[in-house]
Write a structure and sequence with these properties.
single chain, mainly alpha, two-stranded antiparallel sheet, 14 helices, 2 strands, elongated
């Protein structure tokens, strides 16, 4: 994409609410979708593609002003409502991965405070005293706790892909984040019982998180136009790296100021709040979304094909 195409990208991402002509809302993304080098290759010209699109959808030519805009939903009144639905889903997916990978890092940071003696400075002029470690886990036990997550994670990768084809992928992804967030809040209680309970909870977290990547591929198979697929998928998956970058220092701060259980509760609560917003905004396909504009729905369905029309 040339550098001069920034205006084109802006028009695709931001819904042109200010345009009074509803036909222009449909023509704009469709026209830019076909503006490739196909003219030079002799495959199809832009005018031919535009004419074919208008022939396939004659109802758009007589669309009265304002009919393309459906009644706004609860989350359509927020400042991000001007983003198209597919970009709202991409941003929420990114946040979901930030929470998911943050949950993975909680134990790695909290275990330092859980298993090590801490020197406590009471005040000036007083001798510091040693606060004994709450848990006396061996390095072998700690290593098993860290690795147990991936015992479950590797098991559900392939089954996750199958589930994403049999059930709505957006629900699978949302329930996976909700489940791992709920399990994360059980870790402080499990640790006080026995480290074996922590291992069991971590295995369960790995099992439910193993379906997140396959579910994301299922989501974008119905939501991402071919010319935007790499951009949308990258926006979603970059949350996995951002989650580790944010969680390591944040978990350290929460542990230092509020105690080692705090990161588990904070990330657990964040996952639950995220799930509510996700279920309000993310739907299985453009055809199932109640507040998507007709222009965006037609653009996605024409770009991908008939698989999105269910």
């Amino acid at each position: 994409m040339p550098f001069g195409g920034f205006d084109s990208l802006k028009e695709k991402v931001l819904t042109p609410w200010s345009e009074k002509d509803p036909i222009a809302k449909v023509k704009s993304p469709i026209s830019k979708a076909f503006k490739k080098d196909t003219d030079e290759k002799g495959l199809v010209t832009h005018d031919e593609a535009q004419a074919q699109h208008e022939e396939d959808h004659p109802e758009l030519a007589s669309l009265p002003p304002g009919e393309d805009e459906k009644k706004p939903g609860l989350c359509d009144r927020t400042p991000c409502a001007n983003l198209t639905k597919r970009y709202q889903i991409a941003i929420l997916s990114c946040v979901g991965f930030i929470i998911s990978f943050g949950i993975r890092c909680n134990m790695g940071v909290a275990v330092v405070d859980m298993t090590n003696n801490v020197t406590v400075h009471v005040g000036e002029g007083e001798k510091p005293h040693i606060q004994r470690a709450e848990f006396h886990w061996t390095p072998e036990a700690i290593g098993i706790i860290h690795g147990s997550f991936f015992w479950g994670y590797i098991v559900t990768q392939i089954p996750g892909g199958y589930l994403a084809t049999r059930f709505p992928a957006n629900r699978i992804f949302g329930l996976a984040i909700l489940s791992t967030a709920s399990l994360n809040m059980l870790i402080p209680a499990a640790a006080k019982v026995h480290y074996g309970c922590v291992i069991a909870v971590r295995i369960l977290q790995g099992l439910v998180e193993g379906v997140t990547y396959p579910a994301q591929h299922g989501i974008w198979s119905k939501w991402a136009p071919p010319l935007e697929r790499s951009r949308l998928v990258t926006m979603s998956f970059c949350g996995s790296y951002a989650g580790a970058v944010v969680s390591m220092p944040l978990s350290g701060l929460l542990t230092d100021y509020a105690g080692w259980p705090c990161p588990f509760y904070v990330y657990g609560a964040a996952g639950m709040v995220w799930f509510i917003v996700w279920m309000l905004i993310a739907y299985e396909s453009p055809a199932a979304h109640p507040t998507i504009t007709q222009a965006e729905r037609i653009y996605i369905e024409d770009s991908i094909g008939g698989s999105t029309r269910r």
